[in-house]
Amino acid sequence: MTVRRERLSGPDTFISKFVVPPVLLLGAEVLAVMVYVPQVLPDWMPRLPHLDWVPPVVEKPLPHLLFWGIVTCLIFMAWWYGIVIKRVETDWARLFISDYRREVAVSIASILAVRENPVFSIDPPAIVLDEDTPWGRAIRFTPPALDSPQMWGRAPLLRFRTYPHPLLEELRVVSRTARMGRGLVHIHQAANGLGRHTRR
Questions:
Q1: pLDDT, tens digit, for every residue of 5-41?
Q2: N or C: which end of the chain has fewer CB within 10 A?
Q3: C-alpha torsion 153→158→160→166, nearest 10
């Protein structure tokens, strides 16, 4: 019998992972052209406008500082979305984690926490596990938007706050229940072992 999986990550995961990073890196290249080509070929491309309100000492290095600051942010975001984001599915007994090259399955009872950032929404949620995976113990993914068909019946249509996310709340409840069940099994096994030793 095939168990149906449910996607925890949003339908735009593939785009966030494989389309957004090249676009961000292309933006960094465009910035490089706009900042540095006028220095080398001033007749081919006009120089950046003078900043009269900036002291002369700061005016010359300012474009370079802004350029490297923006490029660093773009490269970090490309790395963040290209490498960190994972596709996550579940049958509510196991989690199936994939980077589109390989997939691993872990018990849903191995979830220690599901973290969200209520302030910085661009920071993707993280599932923290108590066992190792090829990508570490913190698995980051982008959950579906509240108005997506995947969330129909789980979230009200007119909802302005996305924290806490209903799907992540459901995952918290299920994983907490699974951990309690696993703990009861361990207690039962330990009690049986203690009983065998006592009878001896």
A1: 888 998 888 888 888 888 888 887 787 777 766 665 5
A2: N
A3: -10
What 8-state DSSP symbol labels residue 186?
H
Q: CA-to-CA distance for 124 and 141, rounded, in angstroms?
A: 6
The overall pTM is greater than 0.85: no
- Helix, strand, coil: what percent of the chain each, to 5? 45, 15, 40
Residue 130 main-chain phi, psi, to 5 deg = -100, 10
Q: How far apart are CA 192 and CA 197, in angstroms?
A: 9
String of DSSP letters for 83-141: IIB-EEEE-SSEEEEE-SS-EEEEEGGGEEEEE--SS-TTS--EEEESS--TT-SEEE-
Tens-place pLDDT, residues 87-127:
999 998 999 999 999 999 999 999 999 998 877 767 789 99
Nearest Cα neighbor of 129 from 166, 171, 100, 91 is 171
Name the β-bridge partners of 155: none
Neighbours of 18 (CB within 10 A): 13
Provide the edge-to-edge strand list for the sheet that holds 126-129.
Answer: 111-115, 126-129, 138-140
CB atoms within 10 A of CB 192: 10
pLDDT tens-digit series, residues 47-70 = 556 556 666 666 667 767 777 888
